[in-house]
Amino acid sequence: MAEPIIIWIASNAGGVGKTTLAIHVGYRLAQHGVKTLLVDLDTNGSLARFCGLRPPITTEETSAALFSRQFSGNYPVVFPEWRQASEKFGLCLGGDIMVSVALDLPSRTAKEYVLQKAFRKFPPPAEVILLDSPASLDVLSYCALAAATHILIPSPMSIKMAGVDSLLQMIRSETEELSLNPAPQILGGVPMKVAKNADQKTFAAEIKDIFADQGVHCFPAVRENKHFENAANRGIAPLYLYRPGNEACKDFDPIVDAIQSLLSNKK
Ligand SMILES: Nc1ncnc2c1ncn2[C@@H]1O[C@H](COP(=O)(O)OP(=O)(O)OP(=O)(O)O)[C@@H](O)[C@H]1O
Ligand SMILES: [Mg+2]
Fold this sequence. Notes:
The chain is 38% helix and 12% strand. By secondary structure, the protein is α/β, with parallel strands linked by helices.
């Protein structure tokens, strides 16, 4: 299999929609026949719960395995139990165990490269890998950055969007510091949970400018819709399953199209 496209879903704001973005882009790619793997590096276990699974406990069952000194390429991939689930939509789950990984990493040599090395040494069983990480820019985020070929930046639609500038600065300085070559490419920013009120229109214009000033493409917004939360709370996060006719399903299309073009350019 060709080298996978590894996309870090990067944000320095909590609750912005990272996990929701990863699930929708991943599920849609899988529906299009692209073998996709979501790797959860977060401690909160959201990916498991949003997909109707119980967060697992042991290293071997979770993304923690990829950081283990004993990792030998046995990716702990699980699949949601939805009736229409696609076998192309695999998950490596995070949860509490990722706290121990974050605590152990600082004592490792070349700690930022641990995940990059795991992916390079043992090609993961997918064409596209989506990395969901915690909002705190900690050692796991640096691992995600070093492993990534591409980056997607979901942006909050509030005063917190000002943090996008410091995130982009961190990405650039760490890319340099870690001598990442080739440097991961920023695929674009994604304004998330955009409501229809006047405030949000102002923010929508502002975020476009912030990304444009930094030379970063801005994808069309993902609208705010109560069904995202209802679906996640019921463990059937993809709206494609929960409310297939909902207009918000289409909001991810431009991102999915961009990733599919990357894939076809590789072939
Ligand atoms: N477009 C949307 N409209 C309405 N609610 C949304 C939307 N996207 C996500 N949500 C809801 O917002 C909450 C936070 O989303 P999500 O968990 O995806 O964010 P996150 O950035 O991964 O959060 P965390 O930092 O906790 O990992 C969830 O309850 C989710 O269902
Ligand atoms: Mg999350």
